[in-house]
Design brief:
By secondary structure, the chain is mostly helical. It has 9 helices and no strands. The chain has one domain (about 5-205).
């Protein structure tokens, strides 16, 4: 794979990984509520979920999505319902969890999002499927397709995990500020609204 292609992959991976979106808003919220260590399963689930999609698209699943638009629409609305449920969980949380256990009401954002839940969020996200299709088409080579696909996934992983971790770390640094008064309640409700707002372009897309 040429050096310029590798650099382009790294640049694209960084921009798409670090930019705001449902996954990164969840990471920021998780970092605030539970700290960085307890947010690691969320980090890994988001990353592996996306990279699994890249691999699936590379093996031909993208063509299935093109051939069956109803499947794409189904993913879109399943993702919306799932995100609305997560937003409700976040908005109803009224206190910070600690590094070992949580003390909030069981109806709230009482535990970190698990690895499986995080991966499911990515697998239901049609925007992530679209990005996966773009990068597999743009950065693989027909003459060595499988090897270039595997390299693409490795390069993306190298950039993606540290980039999205920045959001969880940022949330961790905010914990001391938000522990005072009702700040965590306000923060969680704002993040819930941002999470819902981040789905608007997905819902409105064709």
């Amino acid at each position: 794979m040429p050096l310029e292609t590798i650099l382009a992959i790294f640049g694209f991976a960084f921009v798409t990984s670090i930019s705001p979106g449902p996954g990164n808003f969840l990471l920021l919220t998780s970092g605030v509520n539970f700290g960085f260590i307890r947010s690691i399963p969320l980090i890994l689930g988001i990353s592996l979920g996306f990279l699994s999609m890249v691999f699936a698209i590379g093996l031909g699943f993208g063509q299935i999505l093109k051939s069956f638009p109803l499947l794409y629409s189904g993913l879109k609305y399943c993702c919306l319902v799932y995100v609305l449920w997560l937003a409700w969980k976040i908005a109803t949380n009224k206190s910070l969890g600690n590094d070992a256990s949580s003390s909030v009401d069981s109806n709230g954002f009482d535990s970190p999002i698990s690895f499986v839940q995080a991966a499911l969020l990515q697998l239901l996200n049609p925007k992530a499927w679209a990005v996966s299709l773009i990068i597999t088409v743009s950065y693989t080579t027909p003459e060595s397709y499988l090897s270039s696909l595997i390299l693409l996934i490795i390069f993306f992983a190298i950039v993606n995990v540290p980039s999205i971790s920045i959001w969880a770390l940022s949330g961790t640094f905010l914990r001391r500020t938000l522990v005072q008064g009702n700040r965590i309640i306000i923060f969680n409700r704002i993040m819930a609204l941002l999470l819902i707002g981040s789905m608007i372009p997905v819902v409105l897309s064709a």
